[in-house]
Amino acid sequence: MRGILLAGDTGSLPSRAHPISHPLMPVFDKPMIYYPLATLMLAGLREVLVVAAPHDGPPLQRLLRDGSHLGMTIRHAVRPEPRGAAGALLDAADFVAGGPVALMLGATLLHGPAVGAALARHADVSGARVLAHRVRDPQEYDVVEVDGHGTVLSLEERPARPRGDHAVTGLSFYDATAVDTAARLRPRADGRLEAGDLNEAYRRRGSLRASLLGPGTAWLETTGFDALSAAGEFVRTVEVREGHKIGCIEEVAWRQGWIDDAGLATLAVAAGRTGYGRYLRMLAGGYADAVIELPALRRAAGRAIHAG
Question: Lowest CB count within 10 Å: 10, 33, 127, 172, which one?
Answer without folding.
Answer: 127
